[in-house]
Amino acid sequence: MKITARRLIATTSVVALAASVVLVGGMNSANAATAKPVTGGTLNYYTHAEQFPNLDPQRIYTGRDIAFLGSYVMRTLVSYKPVPGKDGATLVADMATNTGVPSNKAKTWTFTLRPGVSWEDGKPVTCADVKYGWSRTFATDVYVEGPAYPLSWLDIPQAKDGSSAYKGPYKKTGQALFDKSINCSKDNRTITFNLSRTVPDFNYYLTYLAGGPVPQAKDTGDKYDLRPMSSGPYMIKKYAINDEMVLVRNPNWKKSSDPIRTPYPDDIVVTFGMDEDVRDQIDLEDQIPNGINMDGLQPSNNVAFFEDPTKKNRRMNNYDPYTTYLAANNSAGHLDCLDVRKAVFFAFDNQSLIDLSGGLTYYGEMGDNPVKPVIGMDYAPTKGNIHDPNFKIGGNPEYAKTILEKAKTSCPDAYDRATNPAKGLKYYRADTATNKKAAVLVEAALKKAGFVIETVYKPSGTYNANLETYKNETDFLSSGWGADWANASTVIPELWGDGCCNYTKNKKTPEYAGFIKKVNLALVELDRKKQAKMWQELSQYGMDQYWYIRTVFGKSQQTWGSKIGGVYYWEPQGSFGFGQLYVKQ
Amino acid sequence: MSQFLEVSNLNVTFPTEDGDVRASNEITYSVGLGETLAIVGESGSGKSVSNLAVMGLHNPSRTKITGSAVLNLSSGPVDVISAPTESVRKLRGKEMSMIFQDPMSALHPFFSIGDQIAEAWHLYNKGSKKDGIKKATEMLELVGIPDAANRVNDYPHQFSGGMRQRAMIAMALVNNPALLIADEPTTALDVTVQSQILTLLKNLQKELNMAIILITHDLGVVAEFADRICVMYGGRIVESGSVEDIFYRPSHPYTLGLLNSVPRLSSGTSHRLKAIPGQPPSLIELPAGCAFAPRCEYVSRVTSGACLTQVPQLIEKSTSHSSRCHLSAGELNNPVKDKA
Amino acid sequence: MFSYVSRRLLYTVILLLIVSLTIFFIFDLIPVDPARLVCSKQCTPSLVEANRHRLGLDVSVFEQWWRFLVGLFAGRTFGEEGIAITCAAPALGYSFSRHECVTTIVAEAFPFTLSLALGAFILWLSVGISLGVLSARKKGKFADRASSVFVLVGTSLPTFISGILVVLFIVLKFNLVNPLELGNWHNPFTDPFGWLQTFFFPCATLALAYAATYTRFTRSNVIETSSEDFIRTARAKGLSEKVILRKHTLRAALAPIVTIAGLDFAGLLGGAIITEGIFGLNGLGKLSIKAVTQTYDLPIIVATTLIASAFVLIMNLIVDIAYAFIDPRVRTS
């Protein structure tokens, strides 16, 4: 998922990638394995936010919320394995009996519901409920949020602009088309999805709450966002925005039907609207030992927490789901020259930006791939770029100059643009104070290598809204990305292919066409291992083209109260493994 | 016959950072029932200060007062200078009252005239609210305000200047005090209204048999209404006597100067007014000798030079007439040939 | 009197109409597109348009305003085809970020704001005026100097500092309130102690800044009034110092405070943004700041702005009338 401007904090680390992998392993601390879990008690969460953005399953699109609500209130057909480390990216069955059966070259997928899965009112969860949940995604005039994959995947005609012929269960236009695309068996326990094309990683989408069921009789439209029905071990007793959410045990949830969740606490309370300084103080002082700060700490408090040896057992530092990058505009009139891009890459001073951000450990590491290690098998370290012996973290202007020299002959136009004082490169940035400081450092480093560069400031309040315009004018564009699920199919096509957020603006050369062809082949590859290899090759290709001038693997820190047990970091969701937490006595 | 008010040797000093302001020095005067004493002088001569001391209106923490001011009440004499503040307060409004120069600022803008008068009456009389208003109405009629029954509910800003001063007088006299101190009561009013107010005071004095101290800088006013006059300069009384004494036989150069500076109907337009040259002295740094000496024409006539070195004593020229000057009697030229 | 009041009320209504229309205009001018805000990353132009229609932003500003006005009197329905939601009159709109009729949201938020405003108002008036009178009477002495320190502290400490200090070092340090219950609502009539727990510190924090100003103001007014001629007259009448202070001095010295206090109070009824935020009180201030800076929730912005304006306008009227009662010189005009 794409990240907002707030998370664009660029840093790096001094050590090479090998050492940083060790760092990652070492910091992924979990206090899970040792103590024995305790049943009972109240588990508190507290946050500055006034509400969850959405509780309606079809409208939820953030990993943290999917993890939280999925662990407690809403079950899905399939889930990620609730364990720490790389293994967490494995799919396991939740409401279904297995992780789905593809057929017809993965154009048809079948799932069977387990026995004993029921709603909080005792009624069983049926195929019709799952089908109804899927239909709500099509009511795009009512629900604007949430993932839109069903619109393009299900075998229903689609208009050019992406809108579907089916307009959802309220308008009911095209209802017959929808009913054909999803079939329920006579016993209402087996569901078959008929897709419009091969989607090998279709079952990953079913980890999303949006792929889950909603009982039609209980659908309250826009208000369902305040009180959804529970199929999980807890149900919503109270949800008052700005006040609190209270979850109590769902008497109709059966452990025998749920291999994934271990609901130890009796109640779960989320307190909203806490002032940030107050929240940080409570966390630092452990004033709510059975509580968890859901937001993380403000930067200076974060540092204080993590440098305090007495707080060792209450914190962890892991990769978050996001990669931040600086994309080069490859289109004509911009950086349409490999040598120029490569020269910029080696001239770039990453160290100064780390120093500016004040903390290398907390913000991330220099990356070598748009795909992040947390995604699992699709990640492999690339060759070259930051692994090139000529790469220096503080910039290597001498080496960059030599590359730039080559561009004089290989692409004289681009060379001229990049070095002619009358022309020069442009870097559009949001006009925040931090960006202004960073721009000074970036310009200085590039000038050392002979570049002419100018930073163009744009109003930060509307920066994101205007990205579509800026991307055509700027030579460099900074952004970030998080994979929707543990498959690079949600990364490479989006960032480097025809997807939503390709800021590299590659020219339609035969080479690029070849690249796209390979991407499309990988998208429909049914052999998972083979697919992983294909993604790795495509990553290497893109990095060799220096489409990205810098890549940073972001990190996130979590803290918790001293009475919380069972803590681990759930890598695919980028959050706590909520379902296993308990309150110590 | 003893006078109602006998002030002896009254000194009022204000200690300040720059030194003691000796506002009143060795003030001695007296006034009897039915009698009007005028205290005349320029601004800063100390004429109000001594009377405020009589009323007990100075801030005790900021004022040093010595001497005595005895009210000879029917219940016995009371020295208001040495008496406790609480008992002096109980005399204010009842035995002695004071009215002030600017009636607009001297009346509370938020309360009706009737309420303010009634408040004074309620202080010393038992009665209902209605009784108070009734009394206030009577007093307004007494001071000549037309349509008193309605106007008693009006506010000070709804009265004209002269009416306001009448209302002030009504308020001051509602409890029948024996002494009324009027501090420049007509200075802020039109000339025509001035004489109305003064006439009113005179009539009320006859009716109520009260003593009046009239403080003013206007000699014309004094001639009409006063029985006795004290002239003050530099915080001291420089001459005191009956109206005739002062007007026909002035014995102090300052008094002479004052008289010469008053225009007279009889003088005609060709007669130039003679102003007294110079400025009044600072009350912090009074000169060593006579306070008037720096401005006095006759200094040279005192061959001993005492004017500059010695404060003259108050010397009796005749039984009721005294003056504070080193000149011997008769040495002063008297240009006043006829009545003003 | 009646014609004066009705005329002023008419002006108030007209002003509120203008204010409401202006809000819609300003909102239309800001460069942020709220229809795009909740759109997920798989946003297509048709999705944005559908959202714009859902939010009611696809019509002209006047049309939006007109619908709002109609809703005020006749209620309003949002959405279509079976999942429509109706808000009863007076409908201030529907908040799509909070899935609730704005009138309900505002009605739930108002008791917090009212409690905070009223509690702070009573505190600062009583402390400010009594301290001011005390320092005026003991001018130059110890009590006066001590209270001037208080004034200095109170006027220099902004609420975002004093509030945080109070919460961190008093409330949380001494566990006076459970941090998870900070800002919880308790009915003041059925649970006065709980209400006090929630509101005492925020009211005190808010009152501090005002009390300091009112102390200074009262002090200088009392000193100035005490030297007025009519006070000397009152003394000359034989009234005791106590009566003079209570009846004559204070009445004149405090009259201007009626105006100022009324307007200060009215301003707070629109919400005390910082104090509410720090102490976790879900009042109108917190409501409006989020709507303006984050969610661009137009119905909430309109509602909170109008309410705040209405309070100020009406209080203006009340204060003018009250002042006329106090000071008769104002009446004749």
Structure, described:
The complex is a heterotrimer of chains A (585), B (340) and C (333). Helix content of chain A is 29%, strand content 18%. Chain A is α+β, with helices and mostly antiparallel strands and 585 residues long. Chain A has a domain at 56-231: D-Maltodextrin-Binding Protein, domain 2 (3-Layer(aba) Sandwich). In chain A, the strands form seven sheets. In chain A, strands 8-9-10-1-11 form a five-stranded mixed β-sheet, covered by helices on one side. A four-stranded antiparallel β-sheet of chain A has the order 4-5-7-6. The longest helix of chain A has 17 residues, at 528-544. In chain B, helix 4 packs parallel to helix 7 (161-173). The longest helix of chain B has 18 residues, at 191-208. Chain B has helices at residues 47-55, 85-89, 103-106, 113-124, 129-142, 148-151, 161-173, 191-208, 219-225, 243-248, 253-260, 306-309, and strands at 5-16, 19-31, 36-40, 64-73, 76-79, 96-99, 179-183, 211-216, 228-233, 236-242, 315-318, 321-323. In chain B, 44% of the residues are buried. Chain C has helices spanning 2-29, 34-37, 45-54, 61-74, 102-137, 142-156, 159-172, 192-226, 229-237, 241-269, 273-279, 284-295, 298-326, and strands at residues 76-78, 85-87, 94-95, 100-101. In chain C, the strands form two sheets. Chain C has a two-stranded antiparallel ribbon. In chain C, a hairpin with a 4-residue loop joins strand 3 (94-95) and strand 4. Chain C starts with a helix and ends in a 7-residue tail after the last helix. Classes of the chains: A alpha+beta (585), B alpha/beta (340), C mainly alpha (333). The interface between B and C is medium-sized, with 29 and 21 residues.
SSE diagram, text form:
The complex is a heterotrimer of chains A (585), B (340) and C (333).
Chain A: H1 17-27, E1 42-46, H2 63-72, E2 78-80, E3 91-93, E4 101-103, E5 108-112, H3 127-136, H4 149-153, H5 175-181, E6 182-184, E7 190-194, H6 202-205, E8 234-240, E9 244-249, E10 267-271, H7 276-285, E11 291-293, H8 299-307, E12 315-328, H9 338-347, H10 350-357, H11 360-363, E13 364-366, H12 397-410, H13 412-419, E14 425-430, H14 433-448, E15 453-458, H15 467-473, E16 476-482, H16 492-496, H17 510-523, H18 528-544, E17 548-559, E18 564-565, E19 569-570, E20 575-576, E21 582-583
Parallel strand pairs in A: 1-10, 1-11, 14-15
Antiparallel strand pairs in A: 2-3, 4-5, 5-7, 6-7, 8-9, 9-10, 12-16, 12-17, 13-17, 18-21, 19-20
Chain B: E1 5-16, E2 19-31, E3 36-40, H1 47-55, E4 64-73, E5 76-79, H2 85-89, E6 96-99, H3 103-106, H4 113-124, H5 129-142, H6 148-151, H7 161-173, E7 179-183, H8 191-208, E8 211-216, H9 219-225, E9 228-233, E10 236-242, H10 243-248, H11 253-260, H12 306-309, E11 315-318, E12 321-323
Parallel strand pairs in B: 3-8, 3-9, 6-7, 7-8
Antiparallel strand pairs in B: 1-2, 1-4, 4-5, 9-10, 10-12, 11-12
Chain C: H1 2-29, H2 34-37, H3 45-54, H4 61-74, E1 76-78, E2 85-87, E3 94-95, E4 100-101, H5 102-137, H6 142-156, H7 159-172, H8 192-226, H9 229-237, H10 241-269, H11 273-279, H12 284-295, H13 298-326
Antiparallel strand pairs in C: 1-2, 3-4
Helix pairs in contact in C: 1-4, 1-13, 5-6, 5-8, 5-10, 6-8, 7-8, 7-11, 8-10, 8-11, 9-10, 10-13, 11-12, 12-13
